[in-house]
């Protein structure tokens, strides 16, 4: 009896030790992931000279909001913010609808040509026409300088579509779909009233993926939206940073001007990152529960 008790104590101690080790590892990973963003936040309100001197490891040094003032002093920042909201909302809805409309048919195993269509989609993940052919197609279809240039060229994210297809195949009960069809529901009615309500978790994942992609997309706007009034927020911030960098370079010819403008440029650089990332950081906690559940269900068979 004494030996069994001693063995149980040792086993309990071993479990506790392993839990402590796992917690420590998780804390280290969290620190490695979260600290870079925290450092950018601290640097955005610190004196750049103190940042380069290593005085902003955990707390701000020489607190200042000059970087944010310079960013929001540009009148185009509000227009860019509104444009980003418009592109993100419309693009997310369009992308999720297209993903659902392509993923659900491919999840039906008796779909004629299912294998060929799947291969056709997968090929596009590895091969593309390149920037110039794509630009010529967009130009010849009349999409240049229109909102649709942000969505139509990449309307279906194939990687996301595969995740949703796996979710439909392995997480939607086939018996429910068969019962609905026996009761007289058309395939479209079954899709709208059964499949969509049962896939809210994976939908949240696709919404987050699409929102982040469209919110951070500046290159598409740079190529297809030449007008400054159509520029999204990331492109506006990029232009502000380029403008401030150019001013700093020009100020090098003026005695005493370079240091201050270079300092302001560095503050704008850090502030722009926070301004661009903050909306997504605010939204994510509200969909985190669905995000985790949907990601696991869509990525793993069974």
UniProtKB/TrEMBL annotation:
Membrane topology note: Multi-pass membrane protein
TM segment ranges: 20-41, 85-104, 116-135, 147-168, 202-225, 267-287
The organism's place on the tree of life at top rank: Bacteria
Broad class of the protein's primary localization: membrane
GO CC annotation: plasma membrane
Keywords: Cell membrane, Membrane, Transmembrane, Transmembrane helix, Transport
CDD domains according to UniProt: TM_PBP2
Domain ABC transmembrane type-1 residues, every copy: 81-279
PROSITE patterns associated with the record: ABC_TM1
Family, similarity comment: Belongs to the binding-protein-dependent transport system permease family.
Name of the protein in its database record: Carbohydrate ABC transporter permease
Gene source species: Schaedlerella arabinosiphila
């Amino acid at each position: 009896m004494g030996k069994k008790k001693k063995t149980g104590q040792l086993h309990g101690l071993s479990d506790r030790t392993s839990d402590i080790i796992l917690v420590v590892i998780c804390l280290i990973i969290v620190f490695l992931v979260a600290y870079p963003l925290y450092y950018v936040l601290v640097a955005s309100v610190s004196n750049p000279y103190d940042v380069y001197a290593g005085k902003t490891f955990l707390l701000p040094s020489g607190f200042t909001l000059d970087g944010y003032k310079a960013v929001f002093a540009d009148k185009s920042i509000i227009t860019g913010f509104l444009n980003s909201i418009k592109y993100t909302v419309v693009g997310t809805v369009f992308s999720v609808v297209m993903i659902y409309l392509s993923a659900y048919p491919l999840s039906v195993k008796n779909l004629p040509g299912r294998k060929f269509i799947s291969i056709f989609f997968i090929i596009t993940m590895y091969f593309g026409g390149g920037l110039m052919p794509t630009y010529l197609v967009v130009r010849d279809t009349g999409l240049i300088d229109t909102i649709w240039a942000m969505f139509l060229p990449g309307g279906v994210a194939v990687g996301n579509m595969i995740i949703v297809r796996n979710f439909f195949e392995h997480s939607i009960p086939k018996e429910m779909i068969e019962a609905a069809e026996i009761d007289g529901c058309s395939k479209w009615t079954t899709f709208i009233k059964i499949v969509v309500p049962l896939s809210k978790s994976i939908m949240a994942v696709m919404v987050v993926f699409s929102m982040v992609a469209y919110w951070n997309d500046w290159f598409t706007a740079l190529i297809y939206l030449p007008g400054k009034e159509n520029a999204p927020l990331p492109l506006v911030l990029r232009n502000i940073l380029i403008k401030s960098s150019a001013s700093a370079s020009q100020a090098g010819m003026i005695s005493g001007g370079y240091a201050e403008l270079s300092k302001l440029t560095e503050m704008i650089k850090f502030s722009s990152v926070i301004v661009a990332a903050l909306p997504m950081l605010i939204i994510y906690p509200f969909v985190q529960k669905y995000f985790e559940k949907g990601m696991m269900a869509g990525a793993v068979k069974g």
